[in-house]
Design goal:
Layout (H helix, E strand, L loop, with lengths): L5 H14 L3 E2 L1 H8 L3 H13 L3 E4 L5 E4 L8 H8 L17 H27 L2 H24 L1
Antiparallel strand pairs: 1-3, 2-3
Helix pairs in contact: 1-4, 1-6, 2-3, 4-5
Length: 152
């Protein structure tokens, strides 16, 4: 089963945009993600419809953040990309009259629902500014470590 990495990729992009001044072109974002600008425009269009980013055409145009990272949660980005369930694992329906299949499905559905609620709560509490702060600390730590390595 192929994993959907759009959430992680768009969080990456939005944080870079904020750190670099808040505006980027589809071409620049495509290079960052090693993808095609058409894919970027389609995905950023979903974020635009939910008020996360705006766009401006022409020279000096591109995609712009409409909200600061401190106001954006992971859930905001997730919902902009997909309003469906985050955990989309399915159940078996090969033998609907089988009591074992029904019991297994019921147990799995309960577990999926609990996990979904927990995940959505975590996404709602996690702000993109927190992730950006973590990235900046990691970058500062990496630079210090590299500097110390070169002194040895």
């Amino acid at each position: 089963m192929k994993q959907d990495s759009r959430l992680a990729r768009m969080i990456h992009v939005l944080i870079h945009m904020a750190l670099l001044g808040g505006r980027e072109t589809s071409e620049t974002i495509a290079k960052m993600l090693n993808t095609n600008p058409v894919v970027v425009r389609r995905t950023m269009g979903a974020l635009k419809r939910k008020g996360v980013v705006g766009s401006e055409g022409g020279r000096g145009g591109g995609w712009a953040l409409l909200r600061p990272l401190g106001e954006l949660t992971v859930l905001d980005v997730q919902r902009a990309l997909d309003d469906g369930q985050v955990l989309a694992a399915g159940v078996s329906e090969d033998h609907p009259t089988c009591p074992v299949e029904r019991a297994a499905n019921a147990a799995l559905v309960d577990a999926f629902e609990k996990a979904e609620r927990t995940l959505l709560q975590e996404f709602a509490e996690l702000r993109l500014s927190t992730i950006a702060e973590r990235a900046m600390k990691d970058a500062a730590g990496s630079q210090r470590a590299t500097h110390l390595d070169h002194q040895a």
